[in-house]
Every structure is written in structure tokens, then in C-alpha cells.
Amino acid sequence: MIGALVLVACGAVQNFAGIHEVGQFTGGSQQWNGGAVASQEVIKELGTNGGGYFNANSAHPFENPNGLSNLFEIFLILAIPFALTRTFGRMVGSLRQGYALRP
């Protein structure tokens, strides 16, 4: 939940609306998709699952709007692998062995 709030603060979309009709400067209109993007993005990054809400692997600007959100998503991707090295050290009874496994 905290990760989703961070992504929303960075500008990721999080709403329960469907498709939005958006006007253009040239007089035409365009349809933009809304949805629960930020919350699904955090789940995707922590579990390293799938291609994302818009099927673009975090390359869509509604999923990853700026550099700070990109840095946060990289942190989410690396959180579990780095935690597992410490877990190994605790399981064998020597934290130094877990730290030796870190890249």
C-alpha cells in the first residue's frame, strides 16, 4: 500500500474509472484508459510478474511517469533478492556468509 502511494505521488494513475474521452488541440478526441495502475504496478514489481497494466513492461508513461518512479520501481524489483541473501545468512547462523553472496 505504501508503494502504491509513492507511485501515485510520482504521478502514476490510480482510479476506478474506465476509459476517459480527452480533447485534443486539433479538435479531435482521444480515449485514455484509467484504472488501478499504481497498486498493480507494485505487485508486479515485487513479484516480478508479467508485462504490466498497459502491457508495456513499465515503459508506458501512466505506469512509470518520471525518473523518481523508475528508481523506486528498480528498488522494488531488487528488494526481495537482496533480502534473500540476508535470509540465507540467518539460516546458516552467520550473517557474514549472507553478505558475501551479495553482488
From TrEMBL:
<keyword id="KW-0633">Potassium transport</keyword>
<dbReference type="Pfam" id="PF03814">
    <property type="entry name" value="KdpA"/>
</dbReference>
<keyword id="KW-0813">Transport</keyword>
<keyword id="KW-0406">Ion transport</keyword>
<keyword id="KW-1003">Cell membrane</keyword>
<keyword id="KW-1133">Transmembrane helix</keyword>
<keyword id="KW-0630">Potassium</keyword>
<keyword id="KW-0812">Transmembrane</keyword>
<dbReference type="InterPro" id="IPR004623">
    <property type="entry name" value="KdpA"/>
</dbReference>
<keyword id="KW-0472">Membrane</keyword>
<protein>
    <recommendedName>
        <fullName>Potassium-transporting ATPase A chain</fullName>
    </recommendedName>
</protein>
<dbReference type="GO" id="GO:0005886">
    <property type="term" value="C:plasma membrane"/>
</dbReference>
<dbReference type="GO" id="GO:0008556">
    <property type="term" value="F:P-type potassium transmembrane transporter activity"/>
</dbReference>
